[in-house]
Amino acid sequence: MMQTDEQLMLEFQGGSARSFEELFRRYRNPVYGFFRRRLNYGARAEELAQETFVIIIRGADHYEARAKFRTYVYGIAMKQLWSERRKVMREAKAMAEPFEEDHETDPAAGMWVKDALSRMDPDHREVLMLREYEQLPYEDIADVLAVPINTVRSRLSRARAELRTLLDQQSVKGVSR
Amino acid sequence: MRQPEHPSWEEELMAYADGELQTDQAERVALHLQSCSECAGAVAEAKKLSAQMAVWQVEEAPSKLSESVAFELQKTAGRRRETRSGSGWWTRGRVWTYGVAGTFAAVMLVAFALTPSLLRSRQSATESHADLQELQLDQSQQGQEGQGQQGDSMESAISPKRREAQQRAPGSSQSSTGPMVIRMIRLTLITKEFDKARTKIETTVQDARGYVDQMTVRSNPGAAKSLVAVLRFPSDSLDAELAELRKLGQAKEESQNTSDVTGQYTDLVARLTNARNTEQRMLALQRERTGKLPEVVEVEREIGRIREEIERMEAEQKNLNNKVQYATVHVDLTEEYHAQLEPSAPSAGTRLRNAAVEGYAGAKETGLGMLLWALMYGPTLVLWALILAPLGFLVWTMQKRTVRN
């Protein structure tokens, strides 16, 4: 029977590096994808994913079994992301608007979705992305973003309506071109 | 059949599409969707949107990410094993609770155990600090040499012998499989034939394939000769060599102290093996990795740190091996007639001269002391005199008038 993430993390707390390797195998691509979809540069996404795992390794003693490991991981990743965005804004460098570059790596349909997401309200976008790409339940989204679950419900509903509108506008533009 | 209730919020439909509703709620919405095309359309739209969003896929995580995390994992795994050896049930609260209670219990236990055997503890403490005493002995003897006494340190002459003996020692750098016991003996002897005894000590050490770690001979005019030596004998032949040493004179005091370091040695070997394995993994990582410069530098720094740790542990292992394979015998040898010797009385002229010198020094010290007193308290006395003088003069004048009247 497959061990849960929480069991593996507790084993890692007890000194089992093998358990963490299994956790890493499970979360390697999701965590990288989390940053990759939210940042313009793949290299920076890789660095932040690495930092996230390093924080988990070094702070393993602080993990308590009552928290879901998935929430714990994305909570750390979200803080990393906020910190990165603050840093970028401070330094006034590129990435004034997320989701602007690396278009050449995306298929056309994906690029449309990416472009529409970039124009959404940031709060709505984050809830929707956590739901659709990270596949988090409402309760976990509420934990990661530190908002009530009803807020998650309402934001998600509005986010879908907003994205639908944006995608429709794009298809209209595409047709008119 | 009654028409199911229309969901009051679109959020409920979204939650249904996301599978977030309780079973009974989901059944209710599903029933409603069968008869409400508007709500069914909203759910279908949400699912279609999810499918559209799923089109945007990103590439898999680069392999470098795995390497970086594996490196961090290796780095911290050793520390975690040491600090949290199988104590998964510990939490911070428990650590504090049990920590405080455990400390209190340990203090009480130690206090209870130590109080009735104070004298014994002092004795064992004295024995266990034999190494420290050797060091102090060496230092004090060096100091005495500096004060003009005749000393005869053999350190420089002994070192080559010691090195030779260490090279001869069977398996001096190998780990032992049996119990690891360090033996230390302290022997205080009084001999009638000092020079002969000294030669015999050196011969015994050579025959036993041991070495003289340290030896100091003192031969002051008007005092008995004495010898203090730290000898190292192979542990196997220690008893026979001790019997030889006892024949040198009358044994005034003899004490033995043994210390079992098997656990310490085993732990050291395990840590050394781990460190060597870690070093090999790091070297492999360094060879295979083509990462960024800071990461490469970090790996090299880590390799350097592990190498330093390995060398420190190897030195510790050698030291332990040496202490186990060679017992330490601390010999304190003194001539028998030491107590009978009295310094010759000085002549009358010398005594008169000494008295004159001491008298002059005493007069000089007294004069200097008076001068110092005057300088220290003089200004204060002058000040008080100036303050009290007018008052005294007034009293004197009034007294004079009274006498006149």
Please write out the topology.
The complex is a heterodimer of chains A (177) and B (405).
Chain A lengths: L4 H9 L3 H22 L3 H17 L10 H23 L16 H11 L3 H11 L5 H8 L3 H28 L1
Helix pairs in contact in A: 1-2, 2-3, 2-4, 3-4, 4-7, 5-8, 6-8, 7-8
Chain B lengths: L9 H8 L5 H13 L1 H17 L9 H21 L8 H23 L3 H11 L1 H17 L4 E3 L1 H14 L12 E11 L2 H14 L3 E8 L7 E9 L3 H9 L3 E11 L1 H27 L4 H33 E10 L12 H57 L1
Parallel strand pairs in B: 2-6
Antiparallel strand pairs in B: 1-3, 2-5, 3-4, 4-6
Helix pairs in contact in B: 1-3, 2-3, 4-11, 11-12
Annotated CATH topology of the largest domain in chain A: Rna Polymerase Sigma Factor, Chain: A
Number of helices of chain B: 13
Structural class of chain B: alpha+beta
| Number of distinct helices of chain A | 8
Share of β-strand residues of chain B:
5-15%
- The helix-strand sequence of chain B is HHHHHHHEHEHEEHEHHEH
- Determine the mean pLDDT of chain B: 74
What kind of oligomer do you see? Answer: heterodimer
Q: How big is the Rg of chain B? A: 44 Å
Instruction: Determine and state the CATH class of the largest domain in chain A.
Output: Mainly Alpha
Global structural class of chain A: mainly alpha
- Could you report the average pLDDT of chain A, rounded to the nearest whole number? 84
Amino- and carboxy-terminal Cα gap of chain A = 55 Å
- Shape category of chain A: globular
CATH architecture of the largest domain in chain A: Orthogonal Bundle
Characterize this entry briefly.
The complex is a heterodimer of chains A (177) and B (405). Chain A has 177 residues and is an all-alpha fold. Chain A has helices spanning 5-13, 17-38, 42-58, 69-91, 108-118, 122-132, 138-145, 149-176.
